[in-house]
Amino acid sequence: MRVLIAEDHEELARTVAAGLRREGMAVDVVLDGEAAIDRASANRYDVIVLDRDLPGVHGDDVCRALVGAGDPARVLMLTAAATIDDKVTGLGVGADDYLAKPFAFAELVARVRALARRAQPALPPVLVHGDLRLDPAARTVTRAGRRLALSPKEFAVLELLLAAGGAVVSAEQLLERAWDEFADPFTQTVKVTVSRLRRKLGDPPLIETVPQAGYRI
What we know:
single chain, alpha/beta, Rossmann fold, Arc Repressor Mutant, subunit A, 2 domains, 5-stranded parallel sheet, 8 helices, 41% helix, 20% strand
């Protein structure tokens, strides 16, 4: 899952980003409205956490721009104002959800995950392939009843492959969906991560490499 945080309070933005990364998400951060629009046009995000009171381009206008451009990302709007009128206005400009500051981090995570599920075709709560089970909410993976210790990136790659339902997922798609903007597209990071994941999944092998195309379960 890839998330963009648009929040002008830099310390809050970095803290939230660090927390979401610990939850296994790929996170980018911008500090003003113009940068939010630019970043959303350059990358595909599942969820955009958008402060309503951004400098430069106001959060409402950012939201309108995203909706007008047909951006598929779901928008969680953050604001210090929590009146009904504020919520109605925020939802009226295209936000999918609304969260007042201060907020509990656990609630933010739950709302981001809920919005991400709505940003793609509906998936079952637990992804299963043979004796392999991946629970996105509990952040657990088991094979033949044995729990596997996966890194956040290994978990993200496996989740994307299982969600594809047997379709091929390219290395570029994996890099875009599981890593943030600082990932070097010319490195072997996807190949290395898939290799480690294969070893942890064990036999019989589950991940197939499709030459010149990518990977599939």
